[in-house]
Write a structure and sequence with these properties.
alpha/beta; two-stranded antiparallel sheet; 8 strands; 174 residues
């Protein structure tokens, strides 16, 4: 059913791709500073919770990306809530649990929820409410070593963010 859903999305939604590099040096410094506090609470702090919070901030400025399409009515329905889907690859296929009300959660809350959802996904323990109601999805092909990719929109959502591997590389400044 996941493959059918993704195939339907590919053939019915216009997919456009923008690939760019981002300097995440400052985010990496904050993450490194906060890792100790997270470890003390038993939470593995990755970059993804920071990306979730950045996505929420961007969606607030661009509400048409936090929306769905009602094809029957021909309408774009903007959402006033932020349920951010996190694509999780499991031995049983791809699933997308949602961080509900992500705008009201701390970085550590989001990190903990991502860990719990990933474990539940691998063990086939997600509930229907965990995977329904998303407003925007993030897929992280960087976790498997990818730098760039072309994610498929999780319809009826209207957009998706794909993130690649975070790595040190030389850049020219000034």
């Amino acid at each position: 059913s996941i493959a059918e859903h993704m195939t339907q999305s590919k053939y019915t939604a216009p997919h456009a791709v923008e690939m760019t590099d981002a300097d995440v040096t400052e985010m990496a410094k904050v993450r490194e500073k906060e890792k100790g506090a997270a470890d003390n609470k038993g939470i593995h702090l990755t970059f993804l919770p920071f990306i979730v919070r950045a996505v929420v901030a961007a969606l607030k400025k661009n509400p048409y990306l936090n929306a769905s399409i009602d094809t029957a009515k021909g309408e774009i329905i903007t959402k006033s809530y932020y349920n951010i889907g996190i694509a999780v690859d499991t031995p049983h296929g791809l699933v997308v649990p949602n961080i509900k009300k992500a705008d009201s959660k701390s970085i550590l809350d989001i990190a903990h929820e991502i860990e719990v959802f990933a474990e539940q996904a691998r063990n086939k323990e997600l509930k229907l409410e965990d995977i329904k109601g998303g407003t925007f999805t993030i897929t992280n092909y960087g976790s498997v070593g990818g730098t760039y990719g072309m994610p498929i929109i999780n319809q009826p959502e209207v957009a998706i963010l794909g993130t690649g591997r975070i790595e040190d590389k030389p850049v020219v400044r000034n």
